[in-house]
Amino acid sequence: MGSSVLLEAGTGELEIIVFIVNGNAYCINVLKSREIIQLSEVRPATVTNKSILGLTNVRDKVMTVVDLSYILDKKPTELTTSKMALVCEFNRQEVMFVVDSIVGIQRIRWSDITKPDRLLKASLTVGNILTDNGILLLLDFEKIISDLSEADNVYLKSKDTIAVKPERAGKKIYIAEDSKTIGALLKEVLTASGYTSLKLFENGQDVLQAIYELKEEYGEGYKKEIDLLITDIEMPILDGHTVTRRIKEDNILNTLPVVIFSSLITDDLFHKGEKVGADRQISKPAIGSLVEAIDELVF
Fold first, then answer.
1. Mean pLDDT in the chain?
2. 3-class SS at 269?
3. pLDDT at residue 290 tops 60
4. Which pLDDT band holds residue 6 (cuts at 50, 70, 90)?
5. What single string gives the DSSP state of each residue in 149-192?
6. Domain spanning 2-148: which superfamily?
7. What are the boundaries of each domain within the chain?
């Protein structure tokens, strides 16, 4: 999987891991999975949440084992059979997701990902990918984790710790975030901090089109309608790195501050955001750091 680190930032390409759960094919961005392992002994969980199988030890590191079968189909995984697991890192915590089998790794373009059918596991899907072998569903792992840790929601906990500044209300911010759950949480926390002029977009193409329209209408005066863009990286149709690169390569738009806010920002991948010209890169869910970065860039 190391080859994906070498994919050029902003080219519109990504690699996905295709896996099977209950006979259905799903996928995850390679960059979100640290490794794929054979599931070994799992110690039963003391929690009552049926989506959590228990705990396991991987190289002296204790990890929570999440049951994707139950989350997707309300069908508990039988640990009596051989299973594979995706080891992922979210919110600086490693989590293991149990799957039936791994199909392999494919390289696709962000433009191959379409908006999900809202009637088909909509709340857990950020996009559909049509392949020669059928439709793949790109799962919203951030939402899955957010739902599992609802009582310990980092975004909402941050809301009461960020000082409110009335002058923030005059700043206009665009947000590109494909996860409706994270988008709503972002809006709630930023509004509570005083940033009340917010526009949300579900993918990079929509937000870039909106910014291009501002340029067409106002020329170099576009900044009276937008002060800053916050963008995720992983989005259907057009990814955040490509959006950032296109803005920074534009002779008029290149002064627009862009903050990348993503769970994909690791030490290894930070250089990708630098290469496309991002003004700041904040790792989810550090919402306090995000507000600080916005303040620095708009005042």
1. 87
2. coil
3. yes
4. very low
5. TGGG-HHHHHHTTSPP-GGGGG-EEEEE-S-HHHHHHHHHHHHH
6. CheA-289, Domain 4 (2.40.50.180)
7. 2-148, 153-298
